[in-house]
Every structure is written in C-alpha cells, then in structure tokens.
Amino acid sequence: MNGTMMSVIPGETHGFHPASTPDYLPAAQLRDLQLGRLRGIVRRAYENVAYFRKGMQARGVTPGDLRTLGDIVQLPFMVKNDLRDTYPFGLFASPLSDIVRLHASSGTTGKPIVVAYTREDIAVWASVMVRSFAACGLHQGDVIQNAYGYGLFTGGLGAHYGAEELGAMVIPISGGNTDRQIMIMKDFGVTAICCTPSYFTHLIERAGELGVNMKELPLRAGVFGAEPWTDGMRRHIEAHTNIKAYDIYGLSEIIGPGVGVECQCQAGLHIFEDHFYPEIIDPETCEPLADGAEGELVLTTLSKQAMPVIRYRTRDITAILAEPCACGRTIRRIRRIGRRSDDMFIIRGVNVFPSQIETALLSIDGTTPHYQIVLTRAHGLDELAVRVEMTPALFSDKISGLEELQQRITQAIERTIGIRADVRLVEPNTIARSEGKAKRVLDQRNMES
Ligand SMILES: [Zn+2]
Fold first, then answer.
1. 373: helix, coil or strand?
2. Ordered strands of the 371-378 beta sheet
3. CA of 326 to the centre of ligand 1 (A)
4. By the 8 A CB rule, do 237 and 200 touch?
5. Largest interatomic CA distance in the chain
6. Confidence (pTM)
7. pLDDT tens digits for 16-29?
8. Which of 166, 217, 229, 375 could form a disulfide with 233 if both were Cys (CB 3.0 to 4.6 A apart)?
9. Other CB atoms within 10 A of residue 44 CB
C-alpha cells in the first residue's frame, strides 16, 4: 500500500497503518485468500490432530473435498466441551517445541481451556490488534492505558503487544487498583484506555469521588470488550467523558481480543476475515443462515498454526452485515453482540438476557449502570429482583421521587421482557464493583428448597 492511500480512506482521521492493508482488500481477492488459507488449515488439522481427523472421517470428508468456501458446511462443528475434553494439549497441531505461549480460561468449574500460540500466531495476534486500534483511530503517539488483566487471561497481553506494535506508548497497569488507575490516567496524559466497559463505569464513578473531571483529561478513546454491553452503556460512558467508546470482540478459543472491532463509524464490528472466517447458523437446527439474519456466530481460524479451531460455536448471537461500511473497509461486519446464549436465564418459562434488562434500565433518566439481577425461588415460583444503585443526588431526594423512579424502571423492564421484576433501589456503592467481567446475575434458585 503506498502513501496515497492516506488521503482516500474515509473515516480514517489519523492516516493509515500498513498493517490495516487487508481491511481494504477487494472482495474477490479476500475470498481467494480465505479459501487458500482454509484449505491449508483444514489439512494441517487433519494431519496433526486426531480429534479433527476422527471427526472428518466420521462424516466421510477429507481436506481435498474443500473446493469452495461454501464447502465448509461439510465440516463438523466444535463446541467448548471439545476444548475441555482434549485438555491440556490434545488439540495442538504443532510440536510443543514450536509453541511459545499458552493462555488458559479461568476454569472456575473443572479444568480450564488451554490455548497455544507459535511465534507466527503471536505475530498474527499483534497484527489484528494493531488493526483494531487503528480502526478506533489510534496511532503512534497515543498513550494507551491497558487495564485488561495480564496473565493467563488473553486480554492483557493481547492488547499489550498490539499497542506496542502500533507504536503507541503502553502503560501495562493491568486490572484493579482503581485510585492508581485514575492518578496515572491523569498524570501520564493517557489518551486511550482498554478494559471491560463495566470496569470503566467504575473508573468514571471513582474519578468523580476523587474530584477528577474525566472531561478535562486528554482521554479520547476507550476500547472496551470481554463482556457484552449495550448502546445504553455506551451513551452513559460517552456522556460522562470525552471519549468515543469502541466495542472490541474476541475470545480465547479463537485468538483472544482482536477477532473484530468497531471502526470510527461505530456501526457494527469489522471481523478480520483474512484470519477468522465467520458463519451464522440457526442455533437450534445448525443450518447456515444468510447475511443479515440473526443467529449464532461460528468462527474458523484461517491461519492459526499451534491450535487451529474449525467451525467453533461461539454461543454469541449476532448477524453478518454485508453492506459496505462508510469507513471504506471491505471486511464484513457483525452486529454488536448483546446476547450470549451462555448468559441467558429462564424465568417462569421466559428466556431473558441481562442486556435486555440493562437496555430497559438505562432508557430511564437518573439510573446508573450499577445493577444486579437476583433470581430466587419461593414456594416453587421463580422470582426476579433487580437491584439498581441510585446516584448520590437521587439518594438525598424525597421519597416520592424515588417511588416514581422505581415504578418507571419496573414498567420499562416489564415492557421489555414481559415479566414484572421486584425493582429495589439501593444506596450508592452497595453493589460490588468488578475489576474485570461484571457478574450481573446472581442465581440463588438452587440454594433454596
Ligand atoms: Zn467501518
């Protein structure tokens, strides 16, 4: 890509990073690249990993049967349990001596999921993170505070190497230590932050208590991910700061953060399709769905050497947006993920997602994004309670105002999910703050008889 690209790419306000070149490939060229890589990765998996060989043999498919991208539907799906069942190294397609990094899920229930990277995989990961930051308008000269957790979790190191390769100044502060985060943000002239959106709302709140006005800081971008979040949450964050809040998507099973990201148009997340091939399926029938239709996202890694993942069912509900984006990128977008089938809970026979409650809650003026959903069972009947923190200003308000607010929240939730929740307004700072992924749902139904 030559320098003249700089002036012709709309939506890019800070020039062009060469790593972003594949974002703009002509569609036909991108499809050719994907097919070549798909055939290579499927052959690699078949030849080196017994799990894939057995799965394909059971369906009577060989790597040579892949003649078009559409032939991918002949391959079996993978689910999270396949990664658990092969613990720890059963899915590796490279000799251990070629693997330079392992990450693992937290494994709160049973064995964790282990993921592996060759040196080449780490380079690809850094490049998709560079492309992610560049899509959010970040560049050399930015000061990026990386508040994702460093360690076995992929968030911290994934963002770290990408931000360094971008040429930004990286502050590897990791999660937690909130007062120090705010001091450093202020003293080091931080221009962008990476963390979970729920943790950032906590930073906003704590900054207010410390007398730091986030609108007076040079902070102008937030790259938020690792948990689903709503447009209501985005409005809350953008109203309290001068940042643009961008959604970044990824999962450890595929590579970590950097599978997809919003560009400056904030209209869906571009998937780095030259490395991750997206499909949408009907989660019940597993049939492939057309562009635009909502279903479960299925991803295939097209270039991962150490641990190829083929047709992985992410449990994330979205749709592929095939229309061109105003930013000029040709890689397709997915709609923001508001729902993960893993997060869904069923109450009185109704499927409910925490994001529906968040959307209803944040549609009401005077509410905060600090809430918790509590499920209990009394006399055989499920009860749904939503605890919502009041702002300090409201807390000092007269009782009638509070009752009216409670009523409005109850109605908004009932309109959204069709169930009447027991809405309880609680004092400021009484719901536990998370330094990583927020725990929105407390299901106490099995704790009671
Ligand atoms: Zn775009």
1. strand
2. 422-426, 381-389, 371-378, 441-443
3. 6
4. yes
5. 73
6. 0.89
7. 899 999 999 999 99
8. 229
9. 17
